[in-house]
Specification:
This protein has a single domain, classed as 3-Layer(aba) Sandwich (Rossmann fold). Helices cover 46% and strands 12% of the residues. Bound molecules: NADP nicotinamide-adenine-dinucleotide phosphate.
Length: 297
């Protein structure tokens, strides 16, 4: 029997005009790159980020450039009622929800003992609890017009235990395992769940400083957020549930899963040298490293 070509599958399930995407953490970085890709496909958007992040200006720019409807929701997803308020915004949308991209996330870098507990808690509240709450709340809307998609953003860190990012890496391991379990749970329901595990991206001063001070592999595996967004959406539309952009990152993830722990620890120290660098909440450096030229396929 002839099997349909991948690009045919992609076209059949393509997202476009008449579909709405809700993207968290869309004021910059990967979230903004995802918003740009969805707007370019003709999708209406609901974008969320913290207040005073320039989200309104981004929304206006996307609406004008692509002729789509864009709603900006400035709110704190970790605050009481934050995810509820965002989910309520969907009721005002004229187009059905076809994509929920749980992208908002914060890093938390430093030794556990000397890192403020509030930062560790905020990392778990945003990366995990807000993601679970929003997914749970929006599943019924996603089920209404299949096929629809949940794209959860984890990290390459999800495959490792990382001494200088213990809470962040664990929070992303939660996203990875939760998403893969939910993907199984929802198979056949018309809602596909994919989890994206990018390596380093040059999105903010903290990640740039980290890449610049990291090992050779960190610099070689680093990708531009627009490349990652394009790759993630294409792979998601092809039905992939686990998406790891870049062959170096895929190799590292495989090692993280199958290698004995001392080997995995050696790999992780060569990707992220064990040197303390600023996080994305307190970074002062704006030094930029060059993204690699590695191919994503
Ligand atoms: N950068 C990397 O190297 C890297 C690597 C692997 C995985 N990731 C993951 O990829 C995702 C995107 O990363 P990124 O580097 O593009 O992030 P980013 O540039 O730091 O942007 C984070 C986004 O989340 C929003 N946000 C933060 N706290 C929020 C809150 N409490 N409520 C609502 N929105 C909030 C931010 O809004 P404001 O603009 O208002 O702050 C911003 O829009 C994250 O989940 C991250 O963990 C990143």
């Amino acid at each position: 029997m002839l099997r349909p070509h991948r690009s045919m599958i992609e076209r059949r399930l393509a997202l476009g005009p008449g579909h709405c995407a809700l993207i968290t953490g869309a004021s910059h970085g990967l979230g903004l790159a995802l918003a740009r890709q969805c707007a370019a496909r003709g999708m209406d958007l609901i974008l969320a980020a913290l207040p005073d992040s320039g989200l309104d200006a981004r929304a206006e720019e996307l609406a004008t450039t692509h002729g789509v409807s864009v709603r900006a929701e400035a709110l704190d997803l970790t605050a009481d009622g934050g995810t509820e308020a965002l989910a309520d915004a969907l009721q005002e949308s004229a187009t059905p929800l076809a994509l929920l991209a749980n992208n908002a996330g914060v890093s938390c870098i430093g030794r556990f003992e000397t890192t403020a507990l509030e930062r560790s808690e905020n990392c778990i509240l945003l990366n995990d609890l807000a993601l679970v709450r929003l997914t749970r709340r929006l599943l019924s809307a996603l089920r209404q017009e299949p096929p629809s998609y949940v794209l959860n953003v984890a990290s390459l860190a999800a495959f490792f235990s990382m001494p200088l990012k213990p809470v962040y890496a664990a929070s992303k391991a939660f996203v990875l395992n939760f998403s893969l379990a939910l993907a199984q749970d929802l198979r056949g329901s018309g809602v596909q769940v994919s989890v994206l595990c990018p390596g380093a991206m040059l999105t903010h001063a903290g990640s740039c400083a980290q890449v610049a001070s990291g090992g050779l592999l960190a610099r070689q595996s680093c990708l531009d957020p627009s490349q990652v967004a394009d790759y993630a959406l294409r792979q998601m539309l092809r039905g992939r549930e686990l998406i790891i952009p870049g062959w170096i990152n895929r190799l590292a993830a495989t090692l993280g899963r199958v290698a004995p722990r001392p080997v995995a620890e050696a790999v992780i120290s060569s990707i992220f040298e064990r040197r303390e660098t600023p996080s994305n909440d307190d970074a002062a450096s704006t030094h930029r490293a060059s993204p690699s030229r590695e191919t994503l396929e």
